[in-house]
Amino acid sequence: xxxxxxxxxxxxxxxxxxxxxxxxxxxxxxxxxxxxxxxxxxxxxxxxxxxxxxxxxxxxxxxxxxxxxxxxxxxxxxxxxxxxxxxxxxxxxxxxxxxxxxxxxxxxxxxxxxxxxxxxxxxxxxxxxxxxxxxxxxxxxxxxxxxxxxxxxxxxxxxxxxxxxxxxxxxxxxxxxxxxxxxxxxxxxxxxxxxxxxxxxxxxxxxxxxxxxxxxxxxxxxxxxxxxxxxxxxxxxxxxxxxxxxxxxxxxxxxxxxxxxxxxxxxxxxxxxxxxxxxxxxxxxxxxxxxxxxxxxxxxxxxxxxxxxxxxxxxxxxxxxxxxxxxxxxxxxxxxxxxxxxxxxxxxxxxxxxxxxxxxxxxxxxxxxxxxxxxxxxxxxxxxxxxxxxxxxxxxxxxxxxxxxxxxxxxxxxxxxxxxxxxxxxxxxxxxxxxxxxxxxxx
Amino acid sequence: xxxxxxxxxxxxxxxxxxxxxxxxxxxxxxxxxxxxxxxxxxxxxxxxxxxxxxxxxxxxxxxxxxxxxxxxxxxxxxxxxxxxxxxxxxxxxxxxxxxxxxxxxxxxxxxxxxxxxxxxxxxxxxxxxxxxxxxxxxxxxxxxxxxxxxxxxxxxxxxxxxxxxxxxxxxxxxxxxxxxxxxxxxxxxxxxxxxxxxxxxxxxxxxxxxxxxxxxxxxxxxxxxxxxxxxxxxxxxxxxxxxxxxxxxxxxxxxxxxxxxxxxxxxxxxxxxxxxxxxxxxxxxxxxxxxxxxxxxxxxxxxxxxxxxxxxxxxxxxxxxxxxxxxxxxxxxxxxxxxxxxxxxxxxxxxxxxxxxxxxxxxxxxxxxxxxxxxxxxxxxxxxxxxxxxxxxxxxxxxxxxxxxxxxxxxxxxxxxxxxxxxxxxxxxxxxxxxxxxxxxxx
Amino acid sequence: xxxxxxxxxxxxxxxxxxxxxxxxxxxxxxxxxxxxxxxxxxxxxxxxxxxxxxxxxxxxxxxxxxxxxxxxxxxxxxxxxxxxxxxxxxxxxxxxxxxxxxxxxxxxxxxxxxxxxxxxxxxxxxxxxxxxxxxxxxxxxxxxxxxxxxxxxxxxxxxxxxxxxxxxxxxxxxxxxxxxxxxxxxxxxxxxxxxxxxxxxxxxxxxxxxxxxxxxxxxxxxxxxxxxxxxxxxxxxxxxxxxxxxxxxxxxxxxxxxxxxxxxxxxxxxxxxxxxxxxxxxxxxxxxxxxxxxxxxxxxxxxxxxxxxxxxxxxxxxxxxxxxxxxxxxxxxxxxxxxxxxxxxxxxxxxxxxxxxxxxxxxxxxxxxxxxxxxxxxxxxxxxxxxxxxxxxxxxxxxxxxxxxxxxxxxxxxxxxxxxxxxxxxxxxxxxxxxxxxxxxxx
Lengths: 443, 443, 443
Fold this sequence. Notes:
The structure is a homotrimer. In chain A, the strands form 5 sheets. An 8-stranded mixed β-sheet of chain A has the order 1-10-12-11-13-16-14-15, with helices on both faces. A 4-stranded antiparallel β-sheet of chain A has the order 5-4-9-6. Chain A is of the alpha/beta class. In chain A, helix 1 crosses helix 5 and helix 11 crosses helix 12. The two termini of chain A are 40 Å apart. The mean pLDDT of chain A is 96. Chain A is 32% helix and 22% strand. Chain A has 3 domains: 247 residues, Zn peptidases (Aminopeptidase); 90 residues, Glucose Oxidase, domain 1, CATH 3.50.30.90; 77 residues, no CATH class. Chain A has 12 helices and 19 strands. Chains in contact: A-B, A-C, B-C. At the A-B interface, helix 6 of A face helix 10 and strand 18 of B.
């Protein structure tokens, strides 16, 4: 049976295979690519439920935009050769491009082209969700090789009232306190940002579903970035503020470079404490960013008035790797090994959340552990110094109802799972009992 | 029209001219020199009001001393040559010297002489306010050249019941919260300690009066040191404790050496936060002292039971420069450039106080800045990283009602005026609103 | 007359003599050795009262064990030569050995022998209070020289229902707030751990009794380690929690090596602040341990639910010196000089507790010290800088009712007794008054 200690059954290789299946789907903020992606994920995650929200539905300061779908789109030169074709790589088309059927000169075309001079082989990822326009993205080499035209532009898209699509899954636990795992499904063919997020989320969800029980209720959400989280928050704000105890945005978690951590707005939540403890216990090299470096849905989850305890654990952080938002962010950059590392880190974070209980001594004074077989009965010069005994006595000393397991772990210098195992032993021996967690600091 | 951003119209040269006019006046704790000084300042500062307090009036543990006025005073040698003459330099006479008309031997005179062996060309500044005596101050060279006498001593002074004189000016603002600017007018001919204080205070007052509006009410006080602030506090304590949000003692603020900062008793008040931020934003080298180094009216303003939020921003701190309390503290030591620097620092401190508002988001989630023209509508690899956009988003993230502009400036690494300008733009866009400042920490 | 400033009359030589008298007594957790020890201490400390607690009496999670007394015990070889004899050194017998009269082979004997290979001339100290067994401790050289036997084992002990014995003494003070001094009397012939503790406690008690008055009430307790403090706490918990403001466990305080400090559970109590200040003021080199390094009755005093403010000031800490819990911890390791140092440190700690008052200014503003002869009446360049005057003004500035004398000492950089002397002068001058101590921080 799957266990908290053993971690997910799915491996980095499984996750890479799922990402490979999802890679070619033409995702955007809305549309059938999102639906196809969610359908694939629902096969992995039974119970994942898709929701559709009509264009124009308000979400705080925002409203749901028009839906966008692409039948075909290409840029061809004078002799009909297709230079940039959505069917070849969906990054070639600026997301939310309006329909066009025209023949243009090079000069007329130029303002609609996007490329990256310093990355001559990369197709950039460009969107224009909230201003009607159109455009093509191509490599700098392609652009340099363009003749004078005329060029044939065909963009066969639908852009109009429709629906925004997202999915969620609530995996119930012993408590109605919740852990939020949020990831996004609005980027076309890129692997670290974004497919690593949904596949790690799916693997975590499959593991959590398979566990015999969970202390926390887990809420997994798969949505388009920004507008999706705003819509989700606007529908569930009171519930989320009342129940979410920790949360993570899952993104950029599949390459093999260093790990990254972005804190919540003040960096003091349970999600922050768990993130740092997980990195520490696994001995990972990690770049610690500040909330000023945020860039994904934590912008919404941690905004004033929302104030959810949400952090991010990543590998190469968005905006901080050369391949970011280009066609170079592909399935060679994201690897089975890289995905396994990201999954292991998040699984350990969940392990720490689940282990993070609070205990209090049952009566004053140290309990007599010797008569319970937990303390050596012959006292010699070194018996009090045995590390297992000292570890137990140290956990006992700080199991005073003001510390949770992470606090105790920091004080006594032991990993959280060891602290929890010791405290469980002491609980079974009847010398400590679990109590509700102490209140977090006011900010 | 004068503005908060532009700073005072008066220049260091103006201030130096005022100080030159005030320099020869024979000031002391009380008397006509104080009155003449306040009359000059009232010409600069319309509305400045003089108050007279009778000898014997109680002020907490103290009472107003006798008034002292000097008609003439000199020390002459056997042939009638005047060696030290109050008319030549009013530092020659110990302040509060009682009347004397006598002829003395060198031995009899000696206990009444003051000089500084290590500064042979300096006349020291000596007072004896609370013990009746008399004395002359002269340079060490003069003292070394004295013969055996006899010496003629003429001190034609009045020392008896009269009045203590001080002045104040309240410049009203939108709020009845106050900023206190306090300086003293009891030192004879010395330039840094003290004339730099009154002239910088006058220039700040003229600027504040000329501004179209002020958020804070400004209270300027010109008084004799120690007994003056005690009298002022004893008359206004409840009002000042209820209304003063920040204050500064203005002294030693006109030379060209390094800047100095003396904190309030615990260094945690708005005046302290503003002082440190102003020094930082102007990029000034500054010696940071502790409250143990205090030495002027902050001794009273920050005493237990008074507890006003008062700090000091200076150039060369009293007691920490060789010229201190001697005739070398003159108008070559204090310069137009030095005064301009001191004025600029205090003007920036006031700018920060005025800018230091607190804002809160109007609704949860990030506002949609794009439709207000405040966010790029085409998203490319670098658009989220534009520093102007990031700065705005960062101000938004921390405009949560728990931070004032100084807090936000420290968190996001921008100057306070830039934070305030951004927040004002966001306020005009309707996405944040101003709220009352959060309560300061308990101490 | 003895005074707080002068310190105890008894010297390190006196204490060493007492320890020499007590050294041969066969102490254990219970029994006549404890009674003989307490009787000797009662001669030094009039009023010390002995209490007897029957076997089986509950003490939180524990109960009082059987009483143990030894008539004689030896291990002899085949020819009757006594190899290990309780009468020669009471460390030879494992504490709480059950009665035995047997002849054994070497192989049968071996599991009952204890020695230390790396300290071949040391007899180890071994106990087995809570599991019935027997054993002999001998040097490694003795053990290596043992033949094949047979060996004669005679352990003539009583082990059965009886009493646990401890003693206490309450020396009343002006307040019913208490200082707890706790030491233990359950170790056989060892000098640092433990006789240094009881003799330093006795000297402190004699000093405190001789003082003309005390601000605090002092509670001295002499008890068997662990079970003794548990019994004591179970009988007095409510009283101790309500009254004890600071306490120390006295142990390992008589050798000449470095000083040691073990904090209370969170290191924030008055006992911790006093300990660190005392070490600092005496300029002692001191190893600062954490509560994870605890090992004596502070385990009980600082346990959750007891939470007394108890720290430890030692010389070589238990477990951290080679001689620990062996016959090498003798009266050459503990010296008159070493005991004097420990006594001086604890006496200074008590001096700081007694001096640690809280004052508040009588009225706002600085008082006029000049008219009280406490401030120079002629002001020259340097008069404000006189250190005695500045020290007095600094004490005044922070005597605001939120700081006790230790806080003020830390802020102004003066020793606590100097702060207290200055504040007493100011109190006599009527400018400050004593108020109750501010509440300690919540943890």
